[in-house]
Amino acid sequence: MNDHDYRNTSFKNYDFELGNKKVEFLEQFFAKHPRAQNHYTHVNEKSSDLNVLFREIYFHKCAYCGTNIEVIDSSNFEVDHFIPKDILKQSIPHYDFNYINSILNLVSSCKTCNRSKSNFICNEEEVELIHPDKNKLKNLFKRKEDFSIEIHVDYAKNSNIENFFKKLNLDSQQKRIEYLIMEMKDFCKEYEDEENEIISHIKSIIMQIENKRRKLY
Ligand SMILES: [Zn+2]
User: Fold this and answer.
1) On the CB side of 94, how many CA atoms lie within 13 Å of its CA?
2) What is the pLDDT of residue 141?
3) Distance 180 CA to ligand 1 centre (A)
4) Which of 143, 151, 173, 214 qualifies as a FRET site for 181, CA 20 to 30 Å off?
5) What is the distance in A from the centroid of ligand 1 to the CA of 34?
6) Domain presence at residue 84
7) Cα 193 to the center of its chain, rounded Å
8) Residue among 45, 47, 40 nearest 82 (CA)
9) How far is the CA of 23 from the centre of ligand 1 (A)?
10) How far is ligand 1, taken at its centre, from the CA of residue 197, in Å?
11) Assigned domain for 15 exists
């Protein structure tokens, strides 16, 4: 049993079970765009409230790697098509324009995961495991003590899971450093009431790490 979601830090435990969140989102969406069929165009508009509301569904975290708005700014969040748009060109009967651009197929993602994921496509069985809204991702991967991500041993022999993991570079140094920053920031928040020298020191270290990271990526 892998009960710690690799996208969460030791201090903040978000539950990615969506429940009615997307239904409630659509109520607000249709209040603004009653006749819209393409949800993507409006959700993807960075200046729109809907873009912010959409990211809120995923706690302002990347649904794939877990990096959050305190580590990367809002301009580095994108709206991912879980089943890629390119599939429309292949005219696979199961998918049509309305489904591909509907809220059900849209996932909040960091730019690096979205760009790496690109045209990744999996079979229906794997969709059940990999689509973040199915809330099974937390079982597929785990966070190691050195903050890198690895495939859970139960799925080590599943080649589609492995392809997805590699395609998104979930074991990259960038993801590791982003998690480190997130963990340190959450630590500071946890103890911010006891503002003291140690917390101030950690905050200055976070700034140093962030400066180095900016030069690297
Ligand atoms: Zn990501």
Assistant:
1) 4
2) 97
3) 14
4) 151
5) 31
6) yes
7) 29
8) 40
9) 24
10) 32
11) no
Rounded percentage of the chain residues whose pLDDT exceeds 90: 82
Tell me how far the alpha carbon of residue 89 lies from the centroid of ligand 1, in angstroms: 26
Tell me how far the alpha carbon of residue 113 lies from the centroid of ligand 1, in angstroms: 4
Going from the Cα of 151 to the center of ligand 1, the distance in angstroms, rounded, reads 16
Query: Which range marks the domain in which residue 77 is found?
Result: 21-216
- CA 97 / ligand 1 centre spacing (Å): 25
Report helix, strand or coil for 31.
helix
Positive or negative, the CA dihedral 19, 22, 26, 27 is positive
122, 116, 119, 118: which is closest to 140 by C-alpha? 122
How many C-beta atoms surround the C-beta of residue 161 within 10 A?
A: 21
Tell me the CA–centroid distance for residue 117 and ligand 1, in Å.
10
Q: Distance from the CA of 87 to the center of ligand 1, in angstroms? A: 22
At residue 194, the pLDDT reads: 72
> Per the domain annotation, does 7 fall within a domain?
no
- 177 belongs to a structural domain: yes
Q: Determine contact, residues 209/180, Cβ cutoff 8 Å.
A: yes
| Residue 207: half-sphere exposure toward Cβ, Cα within 13 Å | 6
- Structurally, the chain folds into a number of domains equal to 1
pLDDT digits (tens, 9 = 90+) for 162-203: 999 999 999 999 999 999 999 999 999 998 877 688 899 999
